[in-house]
Amino acid sequence: MKLLRLSLPEHPELAKQSLEMLSEIAQEDDVEALSEHFVRGLSDPSLGHQHLLAMREQGPIAIAASEGAQAEFAVAPAFRRRGIGSELLATLAADGIRDVWAHGNLPGARRLAEREHYHPTRELLVMGIEGEALKAAAQVQLADDLQLSTYADTTLEAPEQEWLRVNNEAFDWHPEQGGWDQQRLAKAMDQDWFRADDVLFLESEGRLAGFHWLKRHGDLDEGADGEVYVVGLGRDFRGRGLGDPLVRLGLARLYEQGAQRVILYVESDNRPAVQAYERLGFSTLERHVVYSQSALQGE
Length: 299
Known about the structure:
CATH architecture of the largest domain: 3-Layer(aba) Sandwich
Domain N-acetyltransferase: 9-147, 153-299
Shape: elongated
Binding site for acetyl-CoA 2: 231-233, 238-244, 270-275
Pfam families: Acetyltransf_1 (PF00583)
Family: Belongs to the acetyltransferase family. MshD subfamily.
Largest sheet: 12 strands, mixed
Strand content: 25-35%
CATH superfamily of the largest domain: Gcn5-related N-acetyltransferase (GNAT)
Keywords: Acyltransferase, Repeat, Transferase
Number of helices: 10
Structural class: alpha+beta
Strand order of the largest sheet: 1-2-3-4-5-12-6-11-10-9-8-7
Helix content: 25-40%
CATH topology of the largest domain: Aminopeptidase
């Protein structure tokens, strides 16, 4: 086995083989090993991701993808328990990368983290709602001073600037979602699944009060999940009980268009949000954990 350092967008055949390996891993583990962002980085050079591949003659048997101080990695099922994960982790640490995602927080990942003295420092929940709970949560009424529109049909002046304003007010604390600019928003919209009519705007007297960005994981009529992708309220509209109807508006749209299940991602330590989703009928499906060296070293 040898380790290759490279940028996979410059090596399309290896990127293809890596995607095939990741598909095999997902079938084995019942969870995607890399997040959508890092999967996109296998083919998009503008993201600037760096990659490590553990190679044998037949192709890659493990992959690590990194950006800044964070990384994600996975080992093919047939090559686990051979020290490959430890070697990748040590190589990442030597490169100054100390925060590593474990999607699904599977037993193997927990054992590796404990053995290599990594501690959990962040937990992201995947929550879902379906069946009668989804039908009930999709009921919503708006006050007379509120109007529903979408990014596709809004009459707001400079809607993208309004969208960015509300996003950055809502997520000024968030490491990935906060501090967006026009370029970051454009990149986020540059996805095959993006639909302008799935970005719901809640408007009040010519201002954007909040938005609910939806995502479809395929054809809803064929059983694909819908997703509460991002929900944000503007600073001036907080404390008015608008979060609940804003979420329900998105659930209603997805349910009416055939969604059987809707999922969302939320930080586990955001207890008000978690509890609000639980009251709507959501339950936890998966846990994604960041393991860090710094927790052990007290940095």
